[in-house]
Specification:
By secondary structure, the chain is an alpha/beta fold. Helix content is 51%, strand content 13%. The protein contains 13 helices and eight strands. The strands form two sheets. Strands 1, 4, 7 and 8 form a four-stranded mixed beta sheet that branches. A four-stranded antiparallel beta sheet has the order 3-2-5-6, with no helix packed on it. The chain starts with 6 loop residues before the first helix and ends with a helix.
Length: 343
């Protein structure tokens, strides 16, 4: 749809259209918009699928610095809450136990079908392997690293400085530096992905579309790029293309709550109710039933299928997990109306 837009035009577009608007993102406003309510949960199992308790799990940033550390419960469950958007590494430490350390890459892309309601809840289960005996011929792999580049030093420094500014809530400066890193090295994947995703969260979908399309051309195995590109396409009305990229995201990260959720939303918009229901039920399952947006979308599907009691039940769950909903009184009237239809 926008294939004719070149990277040179994109940079011009970013400078002219968004240069002034980025100044509106003051630190206070950025803090208000990002409540850091994102969560990563999961379970640790041994090779026989038995929960492993009292094992330490670290959460590391995309630069491998320590963000948090926790210990699994008796059920093998771990939880990290209050996280900012971005990519993280979940690292399971052996802690003296007879297991190999394991690392999983997790992407938090807090996007919602309703603007301002975006919260990411990702679930990841990790199966530990027995530690190999010394001297055994084992080729060790790095599970978290899926793509590597050697950008020019100038581009790398600009990107890293931009990320630091974003962490400090200096949005205008941070985004400008990431954009400048792409002017130095147009194929810089992490910069393409990060800038594209940032523009999706800010509603700049045309620029996001071009940047993320380029990111996937450079690295076709990027889950975050596929998911964010799907959202940009969905917002631009290219729903069929969005469904394709949401499916790609699901294939890359089958345990991603957000990917299944967005696929369900897009399928529902095309009246593909049966497929949408399956995707939304999977999103609900992966979130442990606590994701309000999943219940909202399930209510829409059940209402279309004239399953009014189920729709009412899902709206009740939506209010349970979204107590701050502004239209709670109106939603309760809808619930009463749905239950009366059944009666």
């Amino acid at each position: 749809m926008y294939a004719g837009v070149t990277m040179r035009k994109v940079f011009a577009l970013l400078f002219v259209v968004f240069g002034a608007s980025l100044a509106l993102f003051s630190p206070a406003r950025a803090q208000t918009q990002s409540q850091n309510r994102n969560t990563i949960t999961g379970f640790i199992f041994d090779e026989d699928r038995r929960p492993v308790s009292e094992v330490y799990v670290e959460l590391q940033s995309e630069n491998y610095s320590l963000v948090s550390r926790t210990q699994t419960r008796g059920s093998g469950m771990f939880t990290f809450t209050g996280l900012a958007p971005g990519q993280y590494y979940v690292k399971v430490l052996n802690g003296g136990k007879d297991f190999e350390e394991q690392v999983r890459l997790v992407s938090l892309v807090p996007l919602s079908s309703v603007q301002g309601r975006g919260i990411a809840q990702e679930h990841v289960d990790i199966n530990l392997k027995k530690r190999k005996a010394p001297g055994s011929d084992v080729v060790k792999k790095s599970p978290g690293v899926i793509f590597a580049q050697q950008p020019p030093a100038e581009a790398k420094q600009l990107y890293e400085d931009g990320i630091l500014d974003l962490d400090l809530k200096k949005d205008a400066q941070g985004l400008d530096k990431i954009k400048r890193s792409l002017e130095v090295y147009p194929d810089y994947f992490v910069a393409l992905e990060r800038l594209g995703t940032e523009y999706v969260t800010r509603g700049h979908y045309v620029a996001a579309f071009v940047l993320l399309t380029k990111a996937l051309q450079v690295n076709s195995r990027s889950f975050s790029s596929a998911l964010a590109l799907g959202v940009a396409e969905y917002r631009l009305g290219a729903t069929d293309e969005a469904i394709g990229h949401f499916k790609q995201a699901v294939d890359l990260e089958k345990t991603s709550t957000n990917a299944h959720l967005w696929l369900g939303i897009a399928l529902l918009s095309k009246s593909r109710h049966g497929e949408a229901l399956l995707s939304l039920l999977e999103a609900n399952r992966l979130s442990g039933g606590t994701l309000a947006e999943a219940h909202w979308q399930l209510a829409r599907v059940y209402k279309e299928q004239k399953k009014y009691v189920l729709a009412a039940d899902e709206l009740e769950l939506f209010l349970k997990y979204s107590p701050e909903a502004k239209d709670a009184a109106s939603i309760r009237q809808v619930i009463d109306s749905l239950r009366s239809k059944k009666a």
